[in-house]
Design goal:
Helix 4 crosses helix 6. This protein has 9 helices and 2 strands; from the N terminus they run ααααααααββα. A hairpin with a 2-residue loop joins strand 1 and strand 2. It has one domain. It has a two-stranded antiparallel ribbon. The two termini are about 20 Å apart. With about 210 residues, it is mainly alpha-helical.
């Protein structure tokens, strides 16, 4: 049992879980509303990735210093307050560099303050780890989410709009349904299923 715990907490396992096995978007289904509703091109995918990374990383970093002796409900409220404090400089920075893209995100940008990833993973995983492994886990979870968002964004843009970086590609066939929320949800489901198949294949090969 002790060996299993050590193995589960090894840096290699933490990185693999964060990037693939427990990918926040494709495996855990976290923070998918802004993906489905706003990410229909690579520029918008980059915008969401930047916003998510800034708000999530610094919110979790600061929240890790909140004493665990505080009542759970109060801790959750404190996480939201910390997220709001992080949101202010993050929004100023992003609106300075990419104002149009941030405006397109609409309400989904400020909603990142209370995203499920921060609330769920912080209490169930991150804050139970040592500080070093927690930061490693957070970093690669964010990288895993961002990579999935960027892949999703370029695929959706190409097949749904026939463009790449909002430039016409000359695609002979365009499936415009994927540019709509229903199509975005469908694409997300397909990508999640493919990841599961890939993980099962890796597991069989290891055996």
């Amino acid at each position: 049992m002790e060996k299993d715990i050590v193995k589960e907490n090894s840096c290699k396992t933490i990185i693999f879980n964060a990037l693939l096995k427990k990918n926040p978007m494709l495996a855990s289904g976290m923070v998918i509303a802004p993906v489905i509703m706003t990410v229909d091109s690579l520029p918008r995918a980059l915008t969401l990735a930047a916003a998510f990374s800034l708000i999530t990383f610094f919110t979790l970093l600061i929240s890790s210093f909140v004493p665990k002796s505080i009542v759970y409900t109060v801790r959750i409220i404190m996480y939201a307050i910390i997220g709001a404090m992080v949101y202010v400089p993050a929004s100023i920075a992003l609106e300075y560099f990419i104002p149009e893209q941030i405006e397109r995100m609409g309400i989904f940008f400020p909603l990142l303050i209370i995203n499920s990833f921060i609330i769920f993973r912080s209490e169930s995983i991150f804050f139970l780890e040592s500080k070093g492994k927690m930061m490693l886990d957070i970093f690669f979870c964010i990288v895993g989410y961002d990579a999935a968002v960027l892949l999703y964004g370029i695929i959706r843009e190409i097949i749904g709009s026939g463009t790449a970086w909002e430039t016409i590609t000359g695609m002979p066939v365009i499936f415009s349904v994927f540019a709509e929320p229903f199509g975005g949800f469908l694409l997300l489901g397909i990508m999640a299923a493919l990841l599961r198949v890939a993980l099962l294949t890796i597991k069989k090969v290891k055996k």
